[in-house]
Amino acid sequence: MKISSERQVETAVRQTAALARQTKEQGKTIVAVAGPVVVHTGGVAGLSKLIREHWIDAVLSGNALGVHDIESALFGTSLGIRMADGRQAEHGHRNHMRAINAIYHANGIKGAVESGRLKSGVMYECVKNDVPFVLAGSLRDDGPLPETITDMNEAQDAYAAVLKPAGLVICLGSMLHSIATGNMLPSWVKIVCVDITPRWRRRSVTGARGRRWASSPMLGCFSICSRGNSHERDVYRRACSRGNRCASARHRNLAKSVPELRDRNRRSRVHLGVPQTGLPDFGAITIRYVPDRLCLELKSLKMYTLAYRDLGIFQENVVNCFLRDIVKACRPVHATVTGEFASRGGLSSRMVATWRAEQAGEAK
């Protein structure tokens, strides 16, 4: 079955629940392959409940899920962003390493659970309910956590041992681990892939004849719906609705400030109308600048970029805001910010904003 992101998420959830019941009746195991996006989108409580109620028999992931899950459990943030309201916490960028250090001080995730330091989350439920988990990572990972396997051959063997009795694999927003898991499975094992990018959903099941798979870009909603709690599902929907209305209210006057564009050859005027959908945009921001006395501090630039994650804003305004704030921060001799955004409906956007010191602070 292929579930389009334009259809109801509840349909995919019901079909996944039916597959899960069928797998349990056959005596097979259900394995979750999860990425850190489970934490970002608020899916921890849902996945934790599935583990606690023994619907999930094993968890495969990387170092990132463990660290983000533990940071969320200990400090209420994910990469320094508060889970409660989506805002950046003061000095929140330190929480990531604080979480890793807390686990090392407790001699591992199991030690943190037994000592009472870790009291909730996906890792906590795995330890408390004796659900095996494998974290495959590398030396480049933050930390990494003591339980993270950095030897790829050893990690692959650990994945294979967990997948051997599996009858259903649920991949939740983890591109690399989902593709790797799909390549290790026989064709009769069913896969449910939840990811915002269609091509990764296809890659996860490429060459797997006879497999069933479902896809949905709304991982947080998918996780909440899978718990069967109608009240929490309604709360999530109302929160999404309020967020879209707030974003629309903040920027409803922005279209009025877009200048008229004139074609000099034809002497005509073009008026642009930009729809507000509330959907996420993906793109790359390239910054080129010639410093004067100051330069940009990379950690600060990273945290500044994260502030745009949940902000409702037009693509053109993103580029202009980046340039304005860079000029204000370090007063470079010359700066250029280029924004290249992913295509929608066959149309792509590329914006360039430039500033020079001799222009007396005016961007063009």
Please provide a written account of the structure:
This protein is of the alpha/beta class and 364 residues long. It folds into 2 domains: 9-228, putative lor/sdh protein like domains (Rossmann fold, 3-Layer(aba) Sandwich); 280-359, GTP Cyclohydrolase I, domain 2. It is built from 15 helices and 13 strands. The strands form 4 sheets. The chain has a 6-stranded parallel beta sheet, with helices on both faces. Strands 11-12-13 form a 3-stranded antiparallel beta sheet, with helices on one face. A two-stranded antiparallel ribbon has the order 3-4. A hairpin with a 2-residue loop joins strand 3 and strand 4 (81-82). Helix 3 packs parallel to helix 7 (122-128).
Please give the CATH class of the largest domain: Alpha Beta
Looking at the structure, the CATH topology of the largest domain is Rossmann fold
What's the CATH architecture of the largest domain? 3-Layer(aba) Sandwich
Secondary structure: number of strands: 13
CATH level-four homologous superfamily name of the largest domain? putative lor/sdh protein like domains
Helix content: 40-55%
Q: Helix count?
A: 15
Largest sheet: 6 strands, parallel
Secondary-structure element pattern, one letter each: HEHHEHEEHHHEEHEHEHHHHEEEHHEE
First CA to last CA: what distance? 50 Å
Name the average pLDDT.
78
* Gyration radius over CA: 23 Å
Q: Into which percentage range does the β-strand content fall? A: 15-25%
Largest sheet: spatial strand order: 6-5-2-1-7-8
- Choose one word for the global shape: globular
Uncertain runs are 207-218, 220-273
Overall SS class: alpha/beta
